[in-house]
Each structure stands twice: as structure tokens, then as C-alpha cells.
Amino acid sequence: MSRPAIIAVAITGSQPTKADNPAVPISPAEQISSTHEAFEAGASLVHIHVRDRDGRVSSDPALFAEVQDGVRRHCPGMIIQFSTGARGRSHAERGSALSLGPDMASLATGSVNFATHIYENEPALIDELARQMLAHQVKPEIEVFDLAMLYNAEALVRRGLLTRPLHVQFVLGIPGALPARRRVLEFCVAELADLMPDATWTAAGIGRAQVTVSQWALELGGHLRTGLEDNVRIDRDRLAASNAELVERTAALCAAHDAHPATPEVARRILSLPAPPDFGG
Questions:
Q1: Torsion over CA: 174, 179, 181, 185 (sign)
Q2: Are 30 and 18 in contact (CB under 8 A)?
Q3: Is 281 part of a structural domain of the chain?
Q4: Is residue 221 part of a domain?
Q5: Which domain covers residue 112, as residue numbers?
Q6: What is the mean pLDDT of the chain?
Q7: Left if phi > 0, otherwise alpha if psi is -120 to 50, otherwise beta: which for 255?
Q8: Over 80: is that where the pLDDT of 278 sits?
Q9: Are residues 249 and 243 in contact, defined by beta-carbon separation less than 8 angstroms?
């Protein structure tokens, strides 16, 4: 039998604009509609940033609540993950929506140089976000942009700020961070298995690396991420028509690698998440 693979869809991000691709969903209504289409195409987890009326990244809990409520209504059981990323937000704002109780939230466990700026995550901020996630029963997705972040996560477990089993996402292909090389991913996966053998993991390839990294993840037993946050093109010559189109392509990769998209019920079991109160899974 084929194995279930979780497809996460990162619908918006903090950078792509409608100038980059008109399909990028900005308003809460657009984000809810785009997520529903991706859910129907096979995504079982949605990674959410929100934008204000001018399209700028926002920390407004009301916007997060609106998108979360819409996804819960239209995508039964789908795993909702909020971003706590840095671009456009102060340290104090980055955990402002965690009290809404999403299923998961991203947590980068270190700083890293990107091509044009520093993705800054100082130790005190990491500790504070981890504490907030514990307090609100939100499962972190550990974002690994550089190798030290993996060992930092294991140290947070030993300090009691993270609970096992962890879910880790290896992000490959951002200039200045982990490169999109198979042996880099193989090493990261092997180190994770040695440090925390009960952990689950996803690999996210940025831009042109998206399909290749997804193939590697399938071959190595991991889970997948796609979406307009990471890649606005379906290929070199054409923009993606929607998040759903990128999910459909990822689902087709599953079929070619003896896997199938995990349902929300199965994805929740894999990630050790409870069913939401209104979902029979």
C-alpha cells in the first residue's frame, strides 16, 4: 500500500504580491477561497500569513481569526498553522495571534543570513514564542533554515520548552541558508533521526527547487510543502494559476512515488494532533 504524505500549502507568505502573480490571495476572503481550493486538491495543512488592506504583512489577530474561522467552516479538519515569522513585524507582534488556538505555528529556532537581510530570532524571542505555544497548546513546526537550528530545537526539548514528538520543516533553496542539495537534506534527516527518532519532518523547496525537493522528500519518507508563498510559477514559462494548481502537481508527485495525499484525519494522527471539536476524525 502507498504511504500517506501530508501536503502543506503556504498560501500567501509575506513577500509575493499580485504584481508577482495575480493569484496570490491577499484579503481574508481570498485566502479562505484559495485554501478551500487547495484543500479540495489534497492539502491537509495550511500555513497562514495575513495582510492588511494595502497588502502588507500584518499581525492583526482579527485578520488571523477571520481566516481561521473561514478555513474551519469550509475545510473540515484541515490543520491550521499560523506564521510567527519576522518580516514586517516586531518581536512583540510575532506571537500576537497564538491565543486564537491554531493547531500549529511556525517556530524558527535561530537566526540566519538571507540574501539581503538577517532573519533575526534571538534566543529570548525563541524562548518566549515557545512558552506561548505551550501555554495555548499550539504545536510548533520547527523551521530549520540552517543546521544549528536543528540542534537548538533539541536543546529546547531538554529545557522543557518544546515537547516531543517534534515536527520539523527543512527549508532548502533560500540564498544564504540551506542549499537545495540532496545530500544536505539526507544529512539533516539523518541527524533528526539520531537526535529525536520520534520526530516527523517536511522538506520545503523554494522557487525552482520546489519540485525537486518534493521528490527527495517522498523518496526519503518525509512530507511536503507547496504554495504561492514559496513559488509563484508552475514552470519557468508560466505563472501558477492558483495554490490549488501547485497542490495538484504535488499530489501527482505522490502518485509517482508510491504515496498519496494524507487526509486531515490521517495528517492529524501523523502529527499527534487532536481532532477539532467539530470534526469527526
A1: negative
A2: no
A3: no
A4: yes
A5: 3-270
A6: 96
A7: alpha
A8: no
A9: no
C-alpha cell at 267: 495528517
Residue 137 CA to its chain's centroid (Å): 18
Q: Is 128 helix (H, G, I), strand (E, B) or coil?
A: helix
Q: What is the pLDDT of residues 38-59, one digit of tens each?
A: 999 999 999 999 999 999 999 9
Grid cell in block for residue 229: 508563498
- Give residue 37's region: left, alpha or beta (phi > 0; psi -120 to 50): alpha
CATH number, domain with residue 249: 3.20.20.70
Spell out the long-range contacts of 211-215 with Cβ–Cβ below 8 A and sequence spacing 24 or more.
211/249, 211/253, 212/180, 213/172, 213/173, 213/180, 213/185, 214/250, 214/253, 215/253, 215/257
Distance from C-alpha of 225 to C-alpha of 250, rounded to nearest angstrom = 8
pLDDT, position 191: 98
pTM, full prediction: 0.97
The number of distinct structural domains making up the chain is: 1
The three state secondary structure string of 2-29 is CEEECEEEECCCCCCCCCCCCCCCCCHH
Answer yes or no: is 190 within a domain.
yes
Examine residue 280 and state whether it is found in any structural domain, yes or no: no
